[in-house]
């Protein structure tokens, strides 16, 4: 059965459509299940930063990923671009109240399967050294500016 004008079938499933309220789009599982979305604010919006490290564990999947979304910092096992990480099971998740993470990076030279050092920089100028595998916070620099 053909529809008027386009020759497409009437029972075709749409993946996107527009109404006066906005655009509706069919999301993939990885898009739908990602961590809480942060409302967009064009004046104070910080982009998402991503850091990778390989911890050389015995399972053969030693890649780890860290990323921030707004005031939240996530640490996951990274399985590559073809396999989505299980976003419901982070290795570590931190939510900051006074300031938000703006940058982070791993110490690749000291990373092991049991411990990895991650430096996190914040919008108010603080720098924090954490271990997301052990879930420890070891040092906070510039803490006089408040975290």
UniProtKB/TrEMBL annotation:
<keyword id="KW-0853">WD repeat</keyword>
<dbReference type="InterPro" id="IPR015943">
    <property type="entry name" value="WD40/YVTN_repeat-like_dom_sf"/>
</dbReference>
<dbReference type="InterPro" id="IPR051362">
    <property type="entry name" value="WD_repeat_creC_regulators"/>
</dbReference>
<protein>
    <submittedName>
        <fullName>WD repeat-containing protein 20</fullName>
    </submittedName>
</protein>
<keyword id="KW-0677">Repeat</keyword>
């Amino acid at each position: 059965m053909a529809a008027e004008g386009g020759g497409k079938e009437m029972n075709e499933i749409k993946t996107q459509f527009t109404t006066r309220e906005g655009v509706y789009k069919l999301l993939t599982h990885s898009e739908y299940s990602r961590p809480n979305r942060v409302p967009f604010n064009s004046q104070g919006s910080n982009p998402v930063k991503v850091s990778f490290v390989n911890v050389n564990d015995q399972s053969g999947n030693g890649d780890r990923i860290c990323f921030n979304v707004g005031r939240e910092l996530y640490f996951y096992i990274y399985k590559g671009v073809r396999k989505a990480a299980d976003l419901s099971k982070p290795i570590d998740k931190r939510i900051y109240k006074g300031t938000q993470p703006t940058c982070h990076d791993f110490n690749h030279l000291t990373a092991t399967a049991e411990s990895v050092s991650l430096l996190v920089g914040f919008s108010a100028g603080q720098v924090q050294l954490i271990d997301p595998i052990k879930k420890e916070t070891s040092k906070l620099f510039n803490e006089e500016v408040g975290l």
